[in-house]
Amino acid sequence: xxxxxxxxxxVRREYLDIGVPPFERPEYRSGSTMPVDQTRVIAEARRxxxxxxxxxxxxxxxxxxxxxxxxxxxxxxxxFWDSAFHAIALLHVDPELAKQEIRCLMQGAQxxxxxxxxxxxxxxxxxxxxREVQPIWLADPFFTATIQPPVVARAxxxxxxxxGDAGFVREVLPPIRRFFRWLKAVRxxxxxxxxALIQPDESGxxxxxxxxxxxxxxxxxxxxxxxxxxxxxxxLYDAYAPYRGEPARLPALDVFTxxxxxxxxxYADGLRCLAKLTAIAGDLPGEAxxxxxxxxxxxxxxxxxxWDEDTGVFWDLAGRAEKPARSLTFSCLFPLILEDLDPxxxxxxxxxxxxxxxxxWLPYPIPSVAASERAFDPGxxxxxxxxxxxxxxxxxxxxxxxRAHGRGDVASRIVERTIEMIDRNxxxxxxxxxxxxxxxxxxxxxxxxxxxxxxxxxxxx
Length: 461
Description:
Structural class: mainly alpha
Order of helices and strands: HHEEEHHEHEEHHHHHEHHEEEEHHHEEH
Oligomer: single chain
Number of strands: 13
Strand content: 5-15%
Helix content: 40-55%
Radius of gyration: 21 Å
Shape: globular
């Protein structure tokens, strides 16, 4: 039942003070020649994690919440994959807060296994922010009906690796396990091992140009992209409206069916993590074997169905016809995060594409769209996301993938450039890959993954 906004304004909110004051420095401006200082970057990341913490009791559900939001002004709610990234960053501040981030997220888990991509803990006090992320499809007044990439299993495994807390694993594992089983049961209707998305924002890559053709987006100018996207999303929601209570039917409608390479690489990685977590929890060995076998099946499906030998990349598959979506984005490289990826394919991804200065190896990598693509929009002229700028969560994932495939040299160069753009421009949502200029929301949560990158380079992550 909707609750009056006035009541929600009484929600208690507290912030963690870790003694790191904010600072506004002129050297944050683009073009500074000041040398990079990791200490400053670490301090800024810790400040953002402190300032973005939201705590209280929701008036609509009576539930206590405690999480890091992506941005207090722009994105004040709890997002599924954001929280997983925040938990990993929090390991370098306070591991107990990392656990709390996951506990809070698991409060959104539903009995059937579904976990929403957004929980609107303070919906009534953030109506303006809610309008900014509209249209969204709500399954309930306070959470969405859609998913995001299942990063959560990797986050929980990282927490266990840092703390050795098997009790925490046993606590949060049941809803995570149910969610991965829900994905298989509801989002793999053709049983090929690959999960399917039913709208673009389920990948977290809301406006990536790889979705333009299937969404019917054909802007005559960059500035028309956002209005066209909004109209296309509304058409999608209208088509789904009669089936809101039947999630299993939605993929079969083929209004928007998309087997996304990035999402499925994260899914395969998550299944590998889930197998390890199941063993840590001391559950039946057969369950760990089940998740390992599923991970192998997803990896094999990516290599057999999405790999293009001619171009040396992985293509997303569009529609029930599974037409390759030949738009060169960072997603095409994402199977690098899988340790068991064919080494020959991994080498081609790195040598022919990641290190290609006409595609992804720009001054501040890794751009979300290859510079060779017509849709490449590094300066954010379209005012919508994932059409060119570089994002730190992408750099984080591919950093670990590169290390797994023996390319630590390339991984270290990515970290150097990531630290540089953050030091000069602050903790921003994304960055211009040509100049390093910060764009989008300020004090953006998952950019604090730089803490994990710095620790890894120091040998302590």
